[in-house]
Amino acid sequence: MRQRIAVIFATLSMAAVLAAVFVTTGPSLNTERLTTAAALYDATVMPATATIHRSDTCQCCGGHRDYLIAAGFVVTEEMHAAADMTGVKQTLSIPRELWSCHTTVIDGYAVEGHVPVDVIKALLVERPDTDGLALPNMPAGSPGMPGTKNETWVFSRFVDGQTQGVFARL
Known about the structure:
- With 170 residues, the protein is an alpha/beta fold.
- The chain contains five helices and seven strands, in the order ααβαβαββαβββ.
- A hairpin with a 2-residue loop joins β3 and β4.
- 39% of the residues lie in helices and 23% in strands.
């Protein structure tokens, strides 16, 4: 019982810190907010199950899968012919301008592309009213992609097939 109370207290304390960071930083996700959300996730959330929908010809999707597994997510894959990925994205109402190579469904959210774990954890902790988020295209240096990060990554929220603003910038 004492352990349960300690976990609840820690959760409430972390939630208060996260709320304070959110209020002071606004909706753009900065490094401090990411770190706080990731810590809260690690302390309170059971490992999430992720289903990756990917083309049977794409190698970088496997890199992102391995990255999620290494971060503690329970991952399953659904392989599709490259042409069938359009139907997956349309079924999940992902706006075309946000498409990337693969789509992951985690705890009811669609996560499009090579999204870093801390951004996913922030999504799962904050639980915004959105269908999901996306890192469009396949930016260099993102998890599962070769190269070095050479630009700001913009993670967009979407609802009902429409882009709804920025969830994070890294």
